[in-house]
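Box 3.1. Reading complex inputs
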Amino acid sequence: MTETHSFGVSPITCHAWNKDRTQLALSPNNNEVHIYQRSSNGWKLLDILNQHDLRVMGIDWAPNTNRIVTCAVDRNAYVWTQGDDGKWKPTLVLLRINRAATCVKWSPLENKFAVGSGARLISVCYFEEENDWWVSKHIKRPLRSTVTALDWHPNNLLLVAGSADYKVRVFSAYVKDIEEAPQPGPWGTKSSLGTALAEFPNSPNGGGWVHSVAFSQCGNKVCWIGHDSSVCVADASKGNTVTRLRTEHLPFLSCIWVGPNSIVAAGHSCSPMLYALDDNGQLYFASKLDNTQRKEAGGLSAMRKFQSLDRQARIETTDTALDSIHQNAITCVRKLREDKFSTSGLDGQLVIWDLKTLENSIAGLKIV
Amino acid sequence: MSKNTSSSAFRKIDVDQYNEDNFKEEEGDGGTAGPDENEIITLLGQGKNVEALISVLKSAPLGCKNQQVKDNALNLTLKVLLSIKSNQIEDAVAKLDRDLVDVLMKYIYRGFEIPSEGSSGHLLLWHEKVYNVGGVGSIVRVLSDSKQA
């Protein structure tokens, strides 16, 4: 079933897992990144990465090369490598931005990473052997506002970016110094770095910052969520058609693909929701994944009720617990394994969800 | 040397205006002339209040830049909303598709801004029924959409 882990009372800004999912990097809403080792009796704090001056906004852990990249409001990004003594050593990356860095993602081959920022640009960074440092190239046009979310295409050459100008854009992130020229694909034929290959407005009614974007495993579909409580999917193999679903929930903050046609989205409603694409490519709501019943504190006895009426002139007790595992907004959803994902949020909790057992326990639930 | 003052005037300086590719609100289509008042009045006269509601919401000039057109549409929509009786509200909302429910919610909130005799109580009833269908998402979209009523 679902496992719940608590990391104190402060919010968890974001989290990332190492390759074998035994270690966890998370930021407790400040300038530090904590590395935890999972053991039989809880979590052991291994290391604290405190090179950033201001709040950490993004963490990503490259599984194969075992490097961590972090970015923060102090406009810097660091690539962390592990020494023989197990301690993490930072390398500063020159992002050349004049606003906060907001999000960071390693490319699938782990030879590049991309950083989104409030300077209305994306820095695509790669390691230059000659000079022995990380250099960055900028994608500027036609971004009009803060880049809030990023994701890489599985082919290592395309980026999708969500922005506070209510748009989602697919860019070429091909760096000719370090890799082979890309083959033409469904997203387009142009290849030079920074070419905008597709642009999707979040909503025809205008509005709704894009909070999270994700490429599907096949790379032909892009899913995003916006602040107008919507979930959208664009399909390049069907001529960039967009299917939108305006939900009745509070806005989502993070989304991932959990199957070829299934999306998990979570956010201010505190519960992850499963959305799926039907055979016609239309989005539909599949299931709420958190069916926890609210714990009644001591039961709602008649005595308690009258006591409360007497003391506070109202029937409700002071019980403010939500009927979900997370007790505050979920800000980060990560894929853990093929059938597992983890969520962390403002309540300082990290929850691991098992889709296999959820499939068995929720009637009619099927991951497609 | 710079002096440390309590002045906060510098915060009001728009430093972004010197940037060449600033974010600009997209130009609305502007073409929507708003609902046809005669048609709506005729429908109301014939007692087809729900049809009038659907018609007025479908032609809502949300993306329009002309405040006069928007105000006219608002007044007309409020007239329709207030003409539908409390016990018919639920059926009327059930006949709307999800996009129109969102549009309706925008007009309900605008209606709260300009109250008339008894209108707010009636709009609260509308709000309750629309909330049952559209959920909090519908309210979120009133706040987040740039094309407003």
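In summary: The domain at 2-361 of chain A is CATH 2.130.10.10 (Methylamine Dehydrogenase; Chain H).
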